[in-house]
Specification:
Layout lengths: L18 H6 L8 H10 L1 H6 L4 H7 L2 H8 L2 H18 L5 H6 L8 E4 L15 H16 L3 E6 L7 E4 L5 E4 L11 E2 L9 E4 L6 E10 L2 E7 L7 H4 L10 H21 L6 E5 L5 H14 L3 H10 L1 E4 L10 E2 L1 H15 L3 H6 L12 E2 H8 L2 E4 L2 H10 L15 E2 L6 H4 L2 H10 L3 H4 L4 H4 L7 H29 L4 H6 L9 E6 L15 H8 L6 E6 L7 H14 L8 E4 L4 H10 L2 E4 L11 H7 L3 E5 L2 H8 L9 E4 L8 H25 L8 H14 L5 H44 L4 E5 L13 E8 L8 E10 L5 E8 L1 E6 L2 E9 L7 E9 L14 E2 L1
Parallel strand pairs: 1-2, 1-9, 2-8, 9-10, 10-13, 13-14, 15-16, 15-18, 16-17, 18-19, 19-20
Antiparallel strand pairs: 3-4, 5-7, 6-7, 7-8, 11-12, 21-22, 22-26, 23-24, 23-27, 25-26, 27-28
Helix pairs in contact: 2-6, 8-30, 10-11, 11-12, 12-30, 21-25, 25-26
Length: 859
Amino acid sequence: MKPIRTFQVTPSLPAALERLVDLAYNLRWAWNHDTIELFRRLDSDLWEACGHNPVRMLGAVEQGKLEIAAADDAYLAHLDRVAQNFARYMAGEPHWFRRCHAKKDDCPLIAYFSAEFGLTECLSIFAGGLGILAGDHLKSASDLGVPLVGVGLLYQQGYFSQYLNEAGLQREEYDDNDFHNLPLRLERGADGRPVSVVIRPAGRNVTAQVWRVAAGRVPLYLLDTNLAVNTPEDRDITDQLYGGDKEMRIKQEILLGIGGYRALEVLGLEPTVFHMNEGHSAFLGLERVKRLKERQGMSLAEARELASSSLVFTTHTPVEAGHDYFPADLMARYFSDYAEQLGTPFQDFLALGRQNPSNDKEDFCMTVLALRLAAHSNAVSKLHGVVSRKMWSALWAGVPEEEIPIQHVTNGVHFRSWISAEMNELYDRYLGPKWREEPADWALWKRVEQIPSEELWRTHERRRDRLVAFARRRLKEQLKRRGRSATEVEIADEVLDSQVLTIGFARRFATYKRATLLLKNPERLEKILNAPGRPVQVIFAGKAHPRDDAGKELIKKIVELARQPAFRRRLVFLENYDLAVARYLVQGVDVWLNTPRRPQEASGTSGMKAAANGVLNLSTLDGWWDEAWRTIDDHQTPIGWAIGRGEDYTDTEEQDQVEADALYDQLELDVVPTFYERRGNGVPRKWVDRMKSSIGNLCSTFNTHRMVREYTEQHYLPADAIYRKLAAEGGAKARALARWKARLFANWPQVNVESVDGAPLDGVTVSSAFQARIWVHLGALTPADVTVQLYLGRVSTEGELVDGDAIPMRAVQSEGARHLYEAKEVSCRASGLHGYTVRVLPRHEDLVTPFLPGCIAWA
C-alpha cells in the first residue's frame, strides 16, 4: 500500500539540546572524540545499537533521557564546549590554506570525484581502501581549509554485510540505507524544491536528485536515482556499490562523471580543477570538454586543451582486473549520440579509451581515457609510480619509463579518525596539541621519545584489552547467528588472551593480498601460536568481493583452520569487517601483518593507521611499506619488520614459499622474542623502542594532511593557474595551443635526427668535458617548436642506455629545414661504458608536459 502523502518526522529535543542536531548533521563528529562522547553520554547502548549514527540516535533516544540531559549542568557544559569548538572550526579558524595560499585574488575550487567515500560506518557508501582514502581526503581538506567539494553516488544499499555459513563460506546481505535517518540532507533550490539533474544514457532521460553531506567545512554532493519519475531499471542505477554487470557499471559511471559535473553546474559551482579519484569518474573529462565547447564556442580541439589543463587523475591499482573496460558495442549503445554532440567520429571517440587507437578490437578503458584527458596524473606510492609508468607505457611510445608523465603522491590516513582516544590524550600530553593541526611536522613527532616507555606500553595494553573484549563479543554474536550450541558460545569467552602477542590481518580478501600466506605451513604456525611461555594469537577480518570465489575460499580456509583444537583459542576470524572493527584492530593489535604479492599493492593504508597507534608493521616490501622501509637509516632503531628484501619473482609459487618461510623466520627469531623480553616492570624495552621509532619516523609522512598539501601544491594550484591562463580572454591561449598542436602533429613525421657531426669519443675520463654536434631535420617546424636533448647514460649488458640524463642542446646553425645543434661541456659522473643518443621533443610555453603521445624522435 503506497502513501498518498509523505512527511519527515524529526526528533523532539528540549530547547537546551537543540544544538545537538547541527552537530549530528556535520560529520566532523566522526573525527572528534569529544563530540562522540557527547552523544555516547545520552545512551551508550543506543549509540552502539544505532551503528554510531547520531541522527538516528536522536530520533530513537527515550524522551526521559533527553529531559534528564537537558537538566544536567555537567552535560550542558559538555555540550557548550563542543558547540563552541565546532563553531570556531566552521568559522575557519586560522588554517593552512588561508595562511599559505589564500592571498591570491581568485581562490580555486577543486571538485573531487570518487565512486565511494568512507567517512563513517553509518554512511555505507564505500567498499574498502579507495573509499576510506577518499573520506580521509575530504577530512584533511576540511582541516586544512582547502577549497574543495566532493562528488559521488548515494547508494540505496551500499556495500554488503558479510556473514559466514556453517561451511565457512562468505554470504552477503544487503540492507537498505535509510536516507532520512542518516547525517545527510536533500539539497534544495531557492524555490525549496530538491535539486536534480538529468542525464540521457542510451537516449532516455534519467533524473537524479542531489543530497548533501557536510564533512566539516567540505560539502559532499551525492546523486540518487531512486525516484518515481524514473523507470524501475533506472531507479536501480544507485542501488548497489559495484553491483550488477558491465552495463550497470557503465550507467553508474555515466551518472558519476557526467551527472556529477552537471550537478555542480546546477548548484552554481564552477570548479577550476577536477580531481578524478580512479577511473570510475573519467567521463567527467568528456563532459568538461563538451560544456566548454558549447559555452565558449570552441572547436573540439580547443575545448580539449582547456579542459585537460584542469583535470587531475589518480590511478590506484597495478592489477589489470582493477581497471574498467567496456566493449565497443556497449560504448556505442551509450555514447554514439554523445560522440556526435562532441563533434567527433565514433571511432575517434573510442580511440580515447584505447592504448592502441587503431586497434578496433580493443575494449574502451576508463583509465586510458583519464590518462589521455588529464594533464596531471599520479600513482599513490613511489613503487606504484614505477609500476604505473611501466603498465601504461604504450600510451607514450618511445618515452623512457622513468619520464612517462605519471608522478606519485603517496597515500596517507587522517589521524584524528583512526588514533584511539587514549593515544590521542598521550600525544596531547607529550607532543602538544599541534600534532592534530600539523601532523606533517617531522620535528613534532620526534618528541615521541619524551613519552615514558612504561606509560606508552600501558596505554597500548589498555587498547589490547579492549580489542580482546570486543573480539569475544563479536565472536559470540557470530556463533549465535549460526545457531551454535550454548556450550560453543560460552567457549568464545576463552578465545584470545589480553596478555598475548596479537597479530592483526584485516583488508579486502583479494588473492594477491595473500591472506593465507601465514597458514602455508600449519604445523610450523601451530608451534608459533602455542609456544610455551611465548604464545601468539592472530585476528583476521575482511570481505571478498561477492563474485570473487577465490577470495571466498581464502576466508573458508582460515575459518576451517580456526575450528581445529590446536588453533581454536589462538586464531579468530571476525565477520563483517567495517570501520568500527578496523578501529579496534589498528588500535589494539601489537603487529599489523601485510603480505601482498609484490608489486601488486598500490599503496595500502591500514598499516599507516596501525603505525599511528604505535602498532608495528610486519610486511612484504610493497606499496607504502617499501617506501617507508627504504627511507630509514640502517643505524636507526627499526620501525618494524620486512618480509624478504623486495625481490622480484617470475614464479608466484616460489615467491609464496620463500616469503612464507621468511615470515615464519621473522616471527620465531625476532618478533616473538622481542615482545616477550621484559624488564622487571613488565615493559618490553626493545619493543617499545621500535614503537617510538615507528611513530617518530612514519607519522610525519604517512598522513592525509601531508598528502592533501602535496596534491594542492603539486597538482591543484598548478592546474588552476594553467587553466586560468588558457581560459583568459575568451580562451585565447587555449585556442592558440590547439592550433600549434595541429601544426605540430601534421609536421611531426618529418622530424628526424640526421647525423652526428664530430669524431668518435676516445680517452674520456670522469668529469672531463666533451662536446656533441647533431644535425636535425625539422621539416616545416622551427627550432622554437622543439627541444633537442643529448640523452647520456650508462650502457647496460643488454646494450641499452640506463640512468639517462637529458642535456639541452642549442641550435647554432640552420640550412633550410636542417638545423645544427650542439652541447658543450658534457661530462660523465662515473666510469664505465657510457653512450648517448639524441631526441627531439615538442616545446611550447603552455605545455604541461613535453611528452605528447607519438611526438618523440630519437636518433
